[in-house]
Amino acid sequence: MADVAETLSQFNLAETDDGFLLEIGGDGGSLLTLKASVEQIDAIVEALDALLSEDDAAIEEVADES
Question: Using an 8 Å Cβ cutoff, are 21 and 35 in contact?
Fold first, then answer.
């Protein structure tokens, strides 16, 4: 990972004939454009879902302890 990370300021996802086009931009003006397959987008979605589900479980545990 980069030593200094920019804050996410732009995120676009567009469907193409070959899969998807993913654009991610930082607040420093950088823009990364990537081609992604359906399988790659599925993997990203699953990873985000798992991460967010873990956060929800941790929040619920803290609330239950109160």
Answer: yes
